[in-house]
Amino acid sequence: MWRCNVSATVAFALILAYASSGLAQDFGYGGQHGPEHWSEDYNRCSGKQQSPINIDLVNVEDKAYPTLEFFNTMVTPKVMHISNNGHTVLVRMTYEEGMEPRVRGGPLSELSPFTGYQFEQFHFHWGENDTVGSEDLIDNHAYPAELHVVLRNLEYPNFESALGKDHGLAVMAFFFQVKKEGTESYEDFTNQLAKIGRKGMSVNFTNPMPLRDYLSWDLLNYYTYVGSLTTPPCSEDVTWIDFMEPIDITEKQLNAFRQLTANDEHLNNNFRPIQPLNDRKVYKSVLEPMPFLNQSAIPFVNVENAANRRSYSPEVLLSGFGLVAALIASAFSGF
Question: Would you name the residues annotated as active-site residues?
């Protein structure tokens, strides 16, 4: 009987220890699991290259970069899975093999000049009102929401192997601004959010749209710096690309995010406070000179793979700032 009681006591203690450990690994945006306590369970959250930051425009340095090249961003995914994980709205897209969106060039060319980066997921951060919400700030100004598109360096076979590695991940960040007329793709998207109102709920979007439809129209102008993931484990050596042109969203569309709940409370203010810049530099993109291009003002256009061929021909970016022509597909053997 004594042995049985001892065994039961030990087993119960182990269960309690396991449960406590699980709780310790949770994180949130307030109270004992808020950002100020993340480093207690995740050491990297106290690192020297953390995100988000305040981008002080006085100290930003101009830097010439190759053109950012986008591949397959106009391809419609086979499946678009939207979930409420208690921290954010997380979106994963499934594509036919070889048709996943990829990005190369810009600041990524210094880190992965040949392989580029592949789309993994995108998610959102937002505030309880229009004065807060974004994670990165511009001259201490916060936008009401921010989109993060997470990319994996193709030198690594999967997200887990790229996590925490030297330039294993990149994040393309897009701010939102409230307008009377929002972006059309976000009307259908935010209508889905009522279906994932509580933590743990998910839905497959029956009318998925290409990744390009969720991004800003201007993909030429951005700020960039080296930072970290803004949620635990706060892995560093992440290349950040913050696009200058915000995405338009209506108050109604934004409120669809604010109605979501996590642990019986509204899922709002899911942004991490800004972190010290330390000795890092923030750069503003300047296009490398292309004297052979005609600098006439023409509207933005995307060109996808002709006839749905499985080749990685780059989409052509045209804007009022001039023509940016990507190289032909044969120049990217294997990409």
Answer: 87
